[in-house]
Predict the 3D structure of the following.
Amino acid sequence: MTAFDKGLQSTLREWHALFAVWAGLSVLATLAGPFGTMEALPLLPRAIYWASVVAVAIVLDRGLSRLGRVMRNGQAMQLGLVFAYAIIMASLVWLLNSYLFAGWGNFGQWIWLVFIILVISAAVHALFFWFKPRPEPRANTVFLARLPVQMRGQLIRLEAQDHYLKVVTDQGADLILMRISDAENELGKTGLRVHRSHWVAHGAIREVRRKQGRISLSMQDGSVIPVSRGYLAALKAAGLAP
């Protein structure tokens, strides 16, 4: 199985988890009929209402979560994003209910929605955590322990820079004092050396490119890593040579 196939399977598993959360919450909300929807809407319109609201809630939550990972500004930023989510989602539901149902439109109802959606958000995160496939234990846990806590994540690639080693994860990049050959030996079969100055993780390779006889790797972090001729055999052995 190639790294692209593994990445595709991981993406599909995440989408399956999101679908399970969406379906479960939609059915639960349809049967419970909160916000007065039980009295105001028949079963089918109520199911459409809640399926739509839950879908928007999950998309907004995933978008803000991704923004939080990109900004990486600590717990204060994460807490701010949680409240931003509640305010945005409460405003959308408040506007929708004001349009659909009589008796909606006052500020107190909006405040109440913010509180309720904070609780629902916690439930969504709990369900997503429950359904999300657990990753296999990392073989590079000891290696990642050399990084600051906030930089520890999925290992993407290594780059030799004089006496230092640039370590790139999905949480950012940092320099450590280490030789790339020592890192290669420690990390074992979790990746491969493709250049005297570059090591890449199998699961972070997005595409293998060939241009004018030269091969390069497009990585998860957006970088393009050259493959030198001396390491083509390793690339072929991993089933990645084009």
